[in-house]
Specification:
heterodimer; A: alpha/beta; 6-stranded mixed sheet; 4-stranded antiparallel sheet; B: mainly alpha; 11 helices; globular
């Protein structure tokens, strides 16, 4: 895929109070692109502006300035939404409708009808394990069931681009795994998924790229690998009789420290320094059995970036 | 158009899920049964003296209106109360987001909701009036089809009041203000302006006050006249003698809806 499903340029949203006295910038000058066929994770603390971005892209709210395109079209039109699926956070369905009727209603609004819609409803209810609840009124659904129904609703029109706002909220671990599997399967069918989530461990597992937002500003964007790797830190597994003496000898010269079970930690300034050390190790008859580049968890990076941003360190 | 029909149909479902509309339906059934019992058990036809045949039509018509008017008034008041929350519920977070994420324009969504509210009242009123009319017609063999036109006048009155509820529902995301204004207009302002213009105007000396009354009378809908004189004239076969109250009320309805659509199109959710 070589085109972008989402493109925003200087997208800004400022909310004003009723009399315009108080203004809150929910999103400030956002430049973002999301490639087609990828899963993009959008992270940020509460009130960072994540949901505002989705609402702007879907025409639920209007930008103060800047522009945005989804699937190559300007966001001002409504017909493009026939190619989009959306699961909002805290979605509400008419309580007097059954699960099947909810899907029928939203399917019809998405332009579907007849046998095609009926077949799709059955397929999706099966996919999210709600087939046996098809004729039960949604007021009797649990939170997890509502989320699964929401996901089915978002997939009704076989969308090319899917926005999911906290899709695993209230879902048990098995249900979360099912949802992850569905998302992975959708990606394999070249769907683009834009995922807002607080569950960083899940985002880490399935996303291709991640954007971190704080106070309406994008403070970091990249692949999960780019964000989490510690560029100059390695864990080495060494074997040899003189490992200890080597570490003692070079401790003052390189940033090397002994760990347990034959492992040591090494911090270098660049790849050249790493290669020099490897040469010296081999020169001393030490076997390098394993080299692992050290990673932070996404959660650690997230917390560190947000703290830095709060202190004004990131712009 | 398909989108409007879908939203209208599901608004009807929403209305039927509410107990007030079931109550409305039950009142209609009870009224029809009550009318039937009175007509068939009490021998009410004996009140028409022999030789009064030409006036039976008027008498039957008066009886029909006597039964239907208070019931439709109650049903209208109930309908306002029940439909007032349609828009605020639609605008709730998690609901409006989903609706606006679908390929449906905001105008279609709003009109679908509007027509849904009107359709449910139309069906209820039609059921009540048709039932009463059928019983009278069968009893007296007088088939006064004009009486059925009251279905449309009462629905028209409701649609005017509902447009106010929808407008204030969109602005405030609450049902309270719209409902209060609709009741105020229907029960107080419209009858008061009608009385002021046609009965009290001879007592008013100030041309400024007279102008003010005229202004308010012409710009506001004339629900009082629609419910009273126009409804009665139509039902009794006299036709419409003065179109002004209908046309100015229709203009008010169109303007209110137009303003509502314009506000809704620009509103952030």
């Amino acid at each position: 895929m070589d085109f972008n499903s989402i493109e925003t340029t200087g997208l800004t949203k400022v909310y004003s109070s009723s009399f315009g006295k108080r203004k809150v910038a929910a999103l400030t000058g956002l430049d973002l692109t999301v490639s087609a066929g990828t899963i993009f994770g959008f992270l940020g603390p509460n009130g960072a502006g994540k949901t505002t971005l989705i609402k702007l892209l879907l025409g639920i709210t209007f930008p103060t300035s800047g522009s945005a395109r989804i699937l190559g079209e300007d966001i001002s039109g409504y017909k493009i939404k026939s190619r989009i699926g959306y699961l909002p956070e805290n979605h509400k369905y008419p309580p007097y409708l059954t699960g099947g009727e909810v899907l029928d209603f939203f399917g019809k609004l998405s332009g579907m009808e007849g046998d095609l819609l009926k077949k799709k409803i059955d397929e999706l209810l099966e996919l999210v394990n709600l087939s046996q609840w098809k004729k039960t009124k949604v007021k009797n659904y649990s939170k997890g069931m509502m989320q699964r129904l929401g996901l089915a609703q978002a997939l009704l029109n076989d969308p090319e681009l899917i926005f999911l706002d906290e899709p695993t909220d209230g879902v048990d671990p098995i249900g979360r795994k099912d949802i992850r599997d569905i998302l992975t399967e959708l990606k394999s069918r070249s769907k683009t998924i834009f995922l807002n989530s607080h569950l960083l461990s899940e985002v880490e597992l399935i996303t291709d790229r991640v954007g971190i937002l704080n106070r309406g500003k994008l403070i970091r964007e990249g692949t999960v690998k780019e964000l989490t790797q510690k560029n100059e830190e390695y864990k080495l597994n060494l074997e040899g009789s003189n490992v200890d003496s080597f570490i003692k000898q070079y401790q003052g010269i390189f940033q090397i420290s002994k760990l347990n079970d034959g492992y040591c930690n090494l911090k270098v300034s660049d790849a050249n320094e790493l290669n020099n050390i490897l040469d010296k190790l081999r020169g001393d008859g030490i076997m390098v059995k394993e080299i692992v580049q050290q990673k932070n968890s996404l959660e650690e990076i997230f917390i560190s970036l947000i703290s830095e941003s709060e202190k004004g360190g990131l712009k | 158009m398909k989108n409007i029909i879908t939203v209208t149909w599901y608004s009807l479902r929403e209305a039927l899920a509410r107990k007030v509309f079931i109550f409305f339906f039950v009142i209609s059934i009870l009224t029809i049964i009550f009318v039937g019992l009175i007509l068939y058990l009490t021998g009410i036809e004996k009140m028409f003296a022999p030789g009064m045949q030409p006036d039976v039509f008027t008498a039957v018509n008066s009886l029909e209106m006597m039964f239907v008017s208070p019931i439709t008034l109650i049903c209208l008041l109930l309908s306002i109360f029940s439909s007032a929350s349609f828009i605020p519920i639609m605008l709730e977070k998690g609901n409006i987001d989903l609706l606006l994420s679908k390929p449906i324009s905001r105008e279609q969504l709003l009109l679908g909701k509007f027509f849904g509210g009107i359709l449910v009242v139309f069906l209820n009123i039609a059921f009540l009036i048709l039932g009463v009319w059928l019983i009278f017609s069968l009893k007296f063999s007088i088939w006064n089809f004009e009486f059925l036109l009251t279905i449309f006048t009462i629905t028209f009155i409701f649609s005017i009041l509902y447009s106010i509820i929808v407008l204030f529902g969109i602005i405030t995301k609450s049902s309270t203000l719209g409902m209060m204004i609709a009741y105020l207009l229907f029960l107080i302002v419209s009858p008061a302006l009608y009385t002021a213009k046609y009965t009290l105007s001879v007592l008013i000396q100030s041309s400024f006050i007279k102008g003010l009354i005229d202004f308010a009378y012409y710009i506001l809908p004339k629900t009082s006249e629609l419910m009273g004189k126009i409804n009665y004239d139509l039902a009794s076969g006299h036709g419409i003698t003065n179109y002004q109250p209908i046309l100015t009320s229709l203009l008010f309805l169109v303007l209110t809806l137009g303003i509502t659509v314009a506000i809704f199109r620009k509103k952030d959710f």
